[in-house]
Specification:
This protein is an alpha/beta fold and 482 residues long. It is built from 17 helices and 16 strands. The chain has two domains: 4-230 and 443-456, Glycogen Phosphorylase B (Rossmann fold, 3-Layer(aba) Sandwich), CATH 3.40.50; 244-441, Glycogen Phosphorylase B (Rossmann fold, 3-Layer(aba) Sandwich), CATH 3.40.50. α8 (233-240) crosses α13 and α9 (243-256) crosses α13.
Length: 482
């Protein structure tokens, strides 16, 4: 049985338990999979170089081998800032109004995927399983096939997949999807994104989709399934019970002086619906004067993709709305919105979640949204807070006992805030118990196990035909010793 080769845009180097800046649940799960199966995590270092050389930086940390390459400034601009984040990201989040189509972006995207393929090729051994992640690398599997790789390969998409009527606006959309069908397993966050993909391949490509959602393509059968991702439940609940989380909890509680706390934790991204959330909270303050001075919204929004102009506009808009709302509703001893434009370690976030009476998770569109699951996992089961969740988050299907809202309706969200603040303890406990069971039972370990099991294939052999040719040589470099 071969090793696991994980390929993603960026690589998360493992850190020792308790190290500062602990990793997120996804990185923990992938590192655990690499320790279990052996293998390599390959991707971009996040650094730029004057001229691309393909040099591999190999490291081994905490039992996991990583391999990274640097990219040229033009690569980063066209592949990452361009096609990935100004074309695919807005399109996949249904924001066709923000989607930019530029031939140079597309050429840069294919060039960098080709560079990934050339660089990782010598690392792939005969029996290895290849697991590619996310929208940055959709055509990578096809490029590896062209170079002779016959190993079992899978792709997991962490974003939504758009409806066919939106996807067809993408130039060369059929070529992109055809390249994805070179994988053996295609994984999506939930049934809606899976159904959108299957609709496309049937309607636009005329392919047969079997009752088990597999796709017949050029004499091969491609498995397409929903694999809902979760959090590392054990690790997160342990962190939530630790000293750092308790200190963060107590600090936040003391600072609000008995007021109710609403919390939002989101990257600074237009898909998160932060402007709409602020407007809904402003409506709540105006419509419910009896609550207005007794509730505080803490919005933590670390910046992201600051080189993309649309993200700069989001930050300016939120700062303007924060000032307007606080100016209208604050007094000398109280401001209704605390807007924090920075990130916090996960243990501190766990303490903030536990202190909050309401978790506001209201994206306009999200692949899954693990903040919703972290909020639930952090709660005190004897006195839990209430999760308000967008019906357009990928997690909504698994979390029906949250207060599901339409984030585009400020009235709907405002009314949900009022209902959550007034919800009786018995109802809060009942809802939280059901939500917690779902978060616990569908954690990131189950997600990782289910995908890797599917990737092994029905015969558990990990092979797809004759494993010979480039990239499958028995003389390929072995993993570094422990």
């Amino acid at each position: 049985m071969g090793r696991l080769i994980v390929i993603s845009n960026r690589v998360s180097v493992p850190k020792a338990a308790g190290a500062a800046g602990a990793q997120g649940g996804l990185a923990v799960a992938l590192n655990a999979a690499l320790r279990e199966h052996g293998g390599i995590w390959f991707g971009w270092s996040g650094q730029e170089t004057e001229e691309f050389t393909g040099h591999l930086d190999m490291q081994r940390n905490e039992g996991v081998t990583t391999a990274t390459i640097d990219l040229e400034p033009q690569d980063i601009e066209e592949y990452y800032n361009g096609y990935a984040n100004r074309t695919l990201w807005p399109l996949f989040h249904y924001r066709i109004d923000l989607t930019e189509y530029d031939r140079n972006f597309g050429e840069g995207y294919e060039r960098v995927n080709e560079r990934f393929a050339d660089s990782v090729l010598p690392l792939i051994e005969r029996d290895d399983l290849v697991w590619v992640h996310d929208y940055h690398l959709l055509p990578l599997g096809s490029m590896l096939r062209q170079k002779g790789v016959k190993n079992r390969m899978g792709l997991f998409l962490h974003t939504p997949w758009p409806p066919t009527r939106l996807l067809v606006s993408l130039p060369l959309h059929e070529r992109l999807v055809a390249s994805m069908l070179e994988y053996d397993v295609l994984g999506f966050q939930n049934a809606e994104w899976l159904e959108s993909f299957l609709h496309y391949v049937q309607k636009e490509m005329g392919l047969k989709v079997n009752p088990d959602n597999s796709i017949d393509y050029e004499g091969r059968r491609v498995v397409a399934r929903a694999f809902p991702i979760g959090i590392d439940y054990e690790e997160f609940t342990e962190a939530a019970a630790g000293a750092e989380a308790r200190a963060a909890h107590d600090r936040l509680k003391q600072s609000v002086r008995g007021r109710k706390i609403l919390i939002g934790v989101d990257r600074l991204d237009y898909s998160k619906g932060l402007g709409e959330r602020f407007e809904a909270y402003s409506r709540f303050l105006a419509d419910n004067p009896e609550h207005a001075a007794r509730a505080v919204l803490l919005q933590i929004a670390p910046p992201s993709r600051e080189d993309v102009s649309s993200y700069q506009m989001i930050r300016e808009d939120l700062e303007r709305k924060t000032g307007h709302i606080n100016g209208a509703h604050a007094d000398v001893a109280f401001v209704p919105i605390r807007y924090v434009n920075r990130g916090y370690p996960r243990a501190q976030l766990a303490g903030f979640y536990r202190a909050a009476d309401i978790g506001l998770v209201t994206p306009l569109r999200d692949g899954m949204n693990l903040v919703a699951k972290e909020y639930v996992a952090a709660q005190d089961p004897d006195d839990p807070g209430v999760l308000i969740l967008s019906q357009f988050a990928g997690a909504a299907g698994q979390m029906q006992d949250a207060l599901l809202v339409n984030p585009h309706s400020i009235e709907h969200v405002s009314e949900a805030i009022k209902r959550a603040l007034e919800m009786p303890l018995d109802e809060r406990r009942e809802r939280h118990g059901k939500l917690l069971a779902s978060v616990r039972d569908h954690d990131v370990r189950r997600w990782r196990h289910d995908f890797v099991t599917a990737l092994f294939g029905p015969d558990k052999g990990g092979q797809s035909g004759d494993a010979t040719g480039p990239g499958n040589s028995a003389n390929a470099p072995a993993d570094e010793p422990a």
